[in-house]
Amino acid sequence: MDIQASSDFLQQTALDRQLDELAGLIERFTGIDGVHETAVPGLMLTRMSNANKPRHSFQQPALAVIAQCSKKLIVGNESYVYDPLNYLVTSVNLPGVAEIVGMSPEHPYLSLRFDLNVEHIGTLLREADLPASASQEATRGVFMGRLSPALLDAVVRLVRLLDAPDDIKFLAPLIEREILYRLIIDGQGARLSQIALTGSHTQRIAKAISLLRDHYDEPLRIETIARNVNMSPSSLHHHFKAVTAMSPLQYQKQLRLHEARRLMLSEVLDAATASHRVGYESASQFSREYRRLFGEPPLRDITRLREADVPRDAIEPVEATTN
């Protein structure tokens, strides 16, 4: 075995060992199917063992790591399939459709999500003097990368803190900083750093997304949003599509439909009331667009969700939140 082959073998062995430990930790700290909050701020653990339909949701800025099985995420017309060897990062709030692949009661899907704090990314870039250019063109707000032993080691140590709750307050911020550092120096790191750089196209689009989320139920005024993020309307449209894979109008439509779905499920509103609440003037148009996105008319979709015992708070509100 030559030196390179030996190095690759040792790296893969280290990854396999770390992934086995991560799977064991997630299994132990979840125990039952569902998405579980933890005592570590921003860390969510997921266990799923039964086949489910593709799930529509808004992806939060986060790092996603899978310990077992794989997942397919569709954003716009693009698909991202990631597994235990590849992490996924979402740098802005993006609507997507996710589907778990290869799970069973004997082989559950085990994964984690760690929310990314834009302010912490900016602080690290400044303090560590990491190279970044604010003039870089806006790129898609979701990307995949090869999981390295160094990054996975930091992730495993973060989850281990759940066994030492008294250490979380002091050690979690240090491990978060290491995780961000590992992501930024990775080959895709420039795409993540752009979100924290004042004046970058990606940072401006993130602000535009925040404005849309805060005012999703109001008529869309591209000129106003463009002025607020210091871009021309044409530049806003171009870079918005580069980051989100959709136009501002398409993004607003998804915001409205997701929020209407949440209102019907959590507040038991009828379709007409929910559609009016989120800004639709035509109930028939709402019903058509709802079916196009979710695959079923509103009443049938909500009935199915209730029969499947989907918790009323399973769908998060769409208003922008500070991260």
TrEMBL record:
InterPro entries according to UniProt: Homeodomain-like_sf (IPR009057), HTH_AraC (IPR018060), Tscrpt_reg_HTH_AraC_N (IPR009594)
Keyword annotations from UniProtKB, A to Z: Transcription, Transcription regulation
PROSITE patterns tied to this protein: HTH_ARAC_FAMILY_2 (PS01124)
Family matches, as Pfam families: AraC_N, HTH_18
Gene Ontology molecular functions: DNA-binding transcription factor activity; sequence-specific DNA binding
Keyword Transcription regulation: yes
Domain of life: Bacteria
Transmembrane region(s): none
HTH araC/xylS-type domain location: 206-304
Identification of the protein by name: AraC family transcriptional regulator
High-level lineage: Bacteria, Pseudomonadati, Pseudomonadota, Betaproteobacteria, Burkholderiales
